[in-house]
Amino acid sequence: QLVESGGGLVQAGGSLRLSCVASGGTFSDFEVAWFRRYPGKEREFVAQVSETGAGQEYDDSAKGRFTISRDDAKNTVYLQMNNLEPEDTAVYYCVARGIWGRGTQVTVSS
What we know:
0% helix; mainly beta; 110 residues; globular; four-stranded antiparallel sheet
């Protein structure tokens, strides 16, 4: 089971750090990704971290503002989001090995 946390309400230009914890399991040896979903839309890719943490991929909208990282000792993957924009308002989900969390709401006010 994956559990996201760290969402909330923040003003434009602010920061949030999302966490995704593997409850009852482990992330080790798996890629982990963050997606987000706007109301009425399909989930879209935001960022991904490799099994070792050495490689990261980002959607163009996230490059330069978001950083994905992992701490396998804590079974946790993070998404540090800086310089947030109202367009980042969405529900954020983590996924690993086809297993999705329930999401955490991020709201950015202008």
